[in-house]
Design goal:
Length: about 240
């Protein structure tokens, strides 16, 4: 597919999604409005570096216990009831101990959040990640893995022992196979943790270089960050893709 056709494809997709969003409550075209009252961290970040700094500042408050709980009052709820303009998109695990909105101390309308077992991806998940950057200029995507991931552990054991998991759990195993193979090659004292980190970096790399997000990354309007959350400390560690 040549460059012109790729541009046309993105334009058609963005127009279609934006039109559909207008028809759905809470998904109208973005606005620059800010909350009239209540705690607010300031204007929406518009660059990858500023969005990343906002997230990491929030994580610092989570670690220290000095939470601000921004943009969570009735005024904010009313503001975003008809329109939204998230500054970040987070692809994280389904683990109940890793809620992105809390560990980054964000509020209503700040983040698009996708959660799958072990950050497993497929066309629907990838499309969901692409939605914000392609339709409303969301400048940051974070793929967030975490310590002691049960989905990664189950997939690792399934592949190591050649014992398929029941039902659609096997689809997660298949999605995580490249990370398993990389962990086997790398070795290490804790192969499950090695696999979990590999999964984050492989997923972020695939998103960063995919057909529709890569032009935004090259232009500097989007960053795709691979990050890892410690259950013990609450701290988010950047593995790759930190915006400058």
């Amino acid at each position: 597919m040549d460059a012109a056709r790729r541009v046309d494809r993105r334009a058609v997709l963005a127009g279609s999604l934006a039109g559909a969003a207008t028809a759905l409550a809470g998904c109208a075209p973005p606005s620059a409005a800010t909350p009239a009252s209540g705690v607010s961290p300031g204007p929406r970040p518009t660059t990858p570096a500023a969005a990343f700094a906002r997230l990491m500042d929030g994580n610092g408050r989570w670690v220290s216990g000095k939470l601000r709980h921004p943009d969570r009052d009735p005024d904010r709820r009313q503001l975003v009831a008809q329109q939204q303009e998230p500054f970040g998109a987070i692809l994280s695990c389904i683990d109940s101990r890793v809620p992105p909105e809390l560990l980054f101390d964000t509020g209503l309308g700040d983040l698009y959040v996708m959660r799958t077992g072990g950050q497993a991806v497929g066309p629907v998940v990838t499309g969901s990640v692409e939605y914000g950057p392609m339709t409303s200029g969301t400048p940051l995507v974070v793929v967030l893995g975490h310590q002691r991931c049960g989905a990664v552990k189950a997939a690792y054991q399934s592949l190591r022992d050649d014992k398929p998991l029941p039902g659609n759990l096997q689809a997660i195993v298949g999605a995580l196979r490249p990370a398993y193979e990389q962990a086997v090659r790398e070795g290490g004292a804790d192969p499950v943790e090695t696999m979990a980190r590999a999964q984050v970096k492989l997923t972020a790399s695939a998103l960063r270089s995919n057909e529709d997000l890569a032009p935004l990354v090259r232009k500097g309007s989007l960053a795709v960050v691979a990050a890892y959350y410690s259950l013990d400390t609450g701290m988010v560690e950047v593995l790759a893709g930190r915006p400058s």
